[in-house]
Amino acid sequence: MKTFKIIYKKFLLVFITTILFSCSKDFLDEPQNTAGLPENVVFSDREIVQSFVTGIYDRYKGQWDNDLTDGVNNSSVDTGGLYAMYFARTVKGNDLIQAPSLFRFDYAHDNKQPTYRRTNFTWTFNYEIVNYANVLINGVENSPDLDEVTKKEFIAIGKVIRAFHYFQIALEFAPNYNNDRTVARIPIYTGPATGNAPSPLSDVYDLILSDLKAAIPDLSEERLGKSYINKSVANGILARVLLVTQDDWTLAASSAKAAYGGNASSAVVSTNWGNGFDELSDQDWLWGHFQNGISESNFYWLSPHSMTDHKGDGYSATFINTNFRDMFSDTDVRKLFEDLYNSSTAYREFVTNKFVFTFASDVPLMRKSEMVLIDAEAQYNLGNETGARNLLFALQQDRDPNATISTNSGSALMNEILLERRKELYGEIGVEWFDAKRLRLPINRDPEHRIVVNVPADSELFYLSIPQSEIDANPNMDASLNQ
């Protein structure tokens, strides 16, 4: 595959010469770039390997070009790393409404063709990080200088990173796992990219699950900061994957519990609500992007904060569906909506004050509250409806002092769990789109929307086309995949 040969060589060179920390013991709490070292040195010392990992995490919030092979920098706010991919999913639902601004094509479900920026960015971003993970795994495995304890730790980190990004690729470029596990659209690489043929979706998920299950026992809870993956985060990723495969609810429950700590009532406590939802130190946050507010002051790219905040120096581009707003009780701390513009235009009636944008705004990627809700869904599917209701109530009573425990059962209880996921996680990780795709549900928009698009269950609108550049460069990728 010419494209990936070029990308791999370029990434390896750039990664080793520009993205690593200097050989210093004075690591900052969160990722930053600095000078580089040659590859044979990178994997000779534990702290330099840690710098390599730090560089990978830093790329999560980079300003991304959608095609690294064309020699032209076409980066854009809506291709600003991991949070941009999540926000593109977010605006595809019914709960949030996007103005004719950035992410407007994602909002219209009209940004999935083979030459479009969303398609190219999502493929390039995730496969680049997969390549970094493979460089890490193979470099550590083959190092004659690292001790076995260090090797196990960093191989585990590499496998979690690889699994996480193959999970994103599978979500973005393939139908739902339980539609047809034989569909082949995604090449698998565990070493340098060489133009592999796409593998069946079942093989992709087998790799994801085997990587996570192999890695978790070798991970520690200790880490340099919450921008780094640790055992809890890895368990949280595994729990999310199992929401998609839906074939091991016992492991989904235990993984979620391991992520949130097992005590749901204490896990869900948060001080971020009403305070801008921008503080990584909040005990509810398991994983997120740290922004230092100084050298990272160029991050107008920061979704969701820069999109949803209508009072700060952002884009003021995202509005709230009135019907979603009405689902919150008046005593719910999450009811942070305002008729700011007194507009007669239906889609502009409400904005959310959940997120405040500053250059120091941190971005949530995973929270304990999400894990409690995953545990509740797992308990429901295990036939333990009482346990599911208790877990659901642990969150509800923290968010609303007037909440009462659910009396729902059967599908009504499941629907309540899904609604609570939307209320808790709106704007963050594209939860509405994720749940609709994995559960084979439609996305039907209310008339209040600027663009009313109804997406049937299992629609091709739930996944992107394979980039044309990939089809052109890889002889094992067939254009018929996009037909």
TrEMBL record:
PROSITE patterns: PROKAR_LIPOPROTEIN. Pfam families: SusD-like_3 (PF14322), SusD_RagB (PF07980). Residues 26-243 form the SusD-like N-terminal domain. Residues 361-477 form the RagB/SusD domain. It is found in: Cell outer membrane. Keywords: Cell outer membrane, Membrane, Signal. Residues 1-24 form the signal peptide. Its main location: membrane. The keyword Cell inner membrane does not apply. Transmembrane segments: none annotated. Belongs to the SusD family. This is RagB/SusD family nutrient uptake outer membrane protein. It comes from Flavivirga aquimarina.
